[in-house]
Specification:
By secondary structure, the chain is α+β, with helices and mostly antiparallel strands. Among the domains are: 50 residues, no CATH class; 69 residues, HSP40/DNAj peptide-binding domain; 84 residues, Sandwich (HSP40/DNAj peptide-binding domain). 25% of the residues lie in helices and 19% in strands. The strands form 4 sheets. A 4-stranded mixed sheet has the order 6-7-11-10. The protein has a 3-stranded mixed sheet with strand order 1-5-4. It has a two-stranded antiparallel sheet with strand order 2-3. The chain is elongated. The N and C termini lie far apart (65 Å).
Length: 309
């Protein structure tokens, strides 16, 4: 695999936001749904997804930067045999061998020990812990995109996913889920010599027709009648998990925001956000009775005084 920084087109000192932005741009361009007649785009999509997965993991990114793993997340050559000498190198049997440059370590050990791991009794595998060969690479990861309804995401409703092999699984969404969240299904990728890769599922939360997300909270503009606003009332309010009753205080104006505790998104740190309900007084058009009432009533206040007008 190529250098993950090169694949995403970001510098090595790029922060998490820059890496995420670069990945989203490439994922949108290369997604298989938009490139059904271009297998190379699908392959590149898998590569950039793997690159983002590595750089998005702080531990893996640090290990890659130190040269401990390669772009696929596999361990780099053991004992520092990537080239040149490393602190005196490995010297089996007191000989003068001090390192290897651009060679397969398994072949080197096989030449030195007469067959390496293939030999029995006293061969390299038994005498040196079986480190003569590089780990076999796993199969490629397979990327998926999962669209989740707004209310389902807020309530963490399980999602049924059909994988490339036709099998279905019930996926449990994590607390704090948002668009761009990635979930890894170990061993559900392509087969490989070192075992199967993983399935990488990227979540996309769909917009709602009247709910809006605000961090872990959910916002809603709620129409109320003039009677309900002036006299106060109990009204039914939709939430992500069904309707509940809300008490509108007497004398409420448009713009007043009321809070429903624990009716928002589940937080990563535990607990849930709230639902913030903003009242909007909805007046009927052409109501003769209301027009007659207002004609005989005057409000001498200046509600715009705080605005300097």
């Amino acid at each position: 695999m190529a250098d993950p920084y090169t694949l995403l087109g970001v510098p090595r000192d790029a922060d998490e936001a820059a890496i995420k932005k670069a990945y989203r741009k490439l994922a949108k361009e290369l997604h298989p749904d938009r490139n059904q007649d271009n297998p190379k785009a699908s392959e590149k999509f898998s590569q950039v997804t793997n690159a983002y997965d590595l750089l998005n993991d702080k531990d893996k990114r640090a290990r890659f930067d130190r040269g401990e793993i390669d772009g696929d997340g596999n361990p780099a050559a053991p004992f520092g045999f990537a080239g040149g000498q490393q602190g005196g190198g490995f010297q089996p049997g007191g000989g003068g061998f001090t390192g290897a440059a651009d060679g397969d370590i398994g072949d080197i050990f096989e030449g030195l020990f007469g067959g390496g791991q293939r030999g029995g009794g006293g061969g390299f595998a038994s005498g040196f812990g079986g480190f003569g060969r590089r780990p076999q690479p796993k199969g490629a990861n397979i990327p998926y995109r999962l669209e989740v309804g707004f209310a389902e995401a807020a309530a963490l409703e399980p999602q049924r996913v059909t994988l490339g092999d036709g099998k279905t699984i019930d996926l449990k969404l994590p607390a704090g889920v948002e668009s761009g969240t990635q979930m890894r299904l170990s061993g559900k990728g392509q087969a490989g010599p070192g075992g199967p890769g993983d399935a990488i599922i990227t979540i996309e939360i769909l917009p709602h027709r009247f709910f809006v997300r605000d961090g872990d909270d959910v916002r809603l503009d709620l129409p109320v009648t003039l009677n309900e606003a002036v006299s106060g009332a109990g009204v039914r309010v939709p939430t992500v998990e069904g309707a509940v009753m809300l008490s509108v205080p007497k004398g409420s104006s448009s713009g007043k925001t009321l809070r429903l505790k624990g009716r928002g998104f589940h937080k990563k740190s535990g607990g849930r956000g709230d639902q913030l309900v903003t009242l909007a007084v909805d007046l009927p058009a052409g109501d003769a009775g209301l027009e007659a009432f207002v004609a005989g009533w005057t409000d001498d206040r200046n509600p715009r005084g705080k605005l300097g007008v």
